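ARCHIVE ENTRY
Sequence with per-residue tokens
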Amino acid sequence: MPNTNDDSTDRLPRWQFRKKQKVEKRRKKRQEIAKTNKLSASVENVDQKESLAERQRYEREKQEWESREEKFKLIELAKKQAKEKEEKSKELSRKRWQETLMNLPMLPPKFTLTSNDNTKKDPAVPFRKFVQSTENEIQPQPKKTYRDRFLERKRAVKEKK
């Protein structure tokens, strides 16, 4: 039998001891959760400030980017206009050159540029004409198109009737 008069034994009954431990455990858990909530609330305030700062930085960078993009577009537009202008001037100069060539007077067929002919001509190599003279001008027949041949056959059929 246990000695009940002993002062050194201040023990609680088992069920009370367990209940006290349980309550103590719950209290500690609640305190830790409260601490983390407090920290997260302060972190949220800091996060809100940071997110506001990030948002402002983002807006600033966005404006810079848009201004750079606008400058780039203007430069590209200027390049495009310069290229179009250059192409138009090339086309105009080519047309003028063609008109000049078409308006040049034709030289007579037996006309020579040099009056003195000091060069020796090889009698074995005959003179070659690359351009036909106007004396024996032979007009080449234009090639008939499918439509022309069709109309000729149609006329031939009508004449037979």
Remarks:
- The CA atoms of residues 18 and 24 lie 10 Å apart.
- The two ends are 151 Å apart (CA to CA).
- The helical segments are 14-103, 146-160.
